[in-house]
């Protein structure tokens, strides 16, 4: 039997969640976000794209507007008051200095103690291949966590008033096949379901036979599975990486 999950650290006040697309956080991590905001912690969302290439039945410009609106609704459900978008092109996000700089600027601006992202490893738990957007954003975030504290990397940011921030302690990775920590979401599952259901345009696009189209069923199965390694309590699991 796999080792039990350890509880996520709770000695922090501010988090910045950085993901590639609107809805990335709603497939599980948002349940934990709701628990954190309910406990008085501040969580800010940063979307690298607007998800404009996510539905081939909708033109990118329209999709961007729809998905941005739905992300704002989803964030509000779980107590998140700030959502920002970087406007990198959906589907072709490139790892490189521009992305690292943009994320570094956000870290310096919001000064979080914890960063949250989605699985950036090559594969998901079930073995399916992960998307390049997820892989590139997660790895850029890990590098930006160090860049944010070094005044000689992207020195122009300091000139813009964004002073170095060395307060990031770790990155929490949702959906990771290497998760070893978890958050009890007993009281926030309903909020997580409502947040995922806010992405109705994308769920409808997936079709009724897709396993994620049933938001409640999808999340209930997930938290129950994680809970088997967390004392039987509904849980969302994370890989915790020190930085």
> What structural category characterises the helix and strand content?
alpha/beta
| Percentage of residues in DSSP E strands | 15-25%
Mean pLDDT: 96
Q: Can you identify the CATH class?
A: Alpha Beta
- Element-by-element helix/strand order: EEHEHEHEHHEEHHHE
Q: What is Rg?
A: 17 Å
Let me know the number of strands. Answer: 8
CATH architecture: 3-Layer(aba) Sandwich
Question: What is the name of the CATH topology?
Answer: Rossmann fold
Estimated helix fraction: 25-40%
- Tally of helical runs: 8
Major sheet attributes: 8 strands, mixed
Could you name the key traits of this structure?
243 residues; alpha/beta; Rossmann fold; 8-stranded mixed sheet; 8 helices; 16% strand; GlcNAc_PI_deacetylase-related
Structure description:
The chain has helices at 29-38, 60-77, 97-110, 132-147, 156-159, 189-197, 200-206, 215-227, and strands at residues 6-7, 14-19, 42-47, 82-85, 114-118, 170-174, 181-184, 235-242. It has an eight-stranded mixed sheet with strand order 1-7-8-6-5-2-3-4, sandwiched between helices. Helices cover 37% and strands 16% of the residues. The longest helix has 18 residues, at 60-77. It is of the alpha/beta class and 243 residues long. The protein has eight helices and eight strands; from the N terminus they run ββαβαβαβααββαααβ. The chain has a single domain (6-242), classed as LmbE-like (Rossmann fold, 3-Layer(aba) Sandwich), CATH 3.40.50. Helix 1 (29-38) packs across helix 6, helix 2 packs antiparallel against helix 6 (189-197) and helix 6 packs antiparallel against helix 8. The two termini are 29 Å apart.
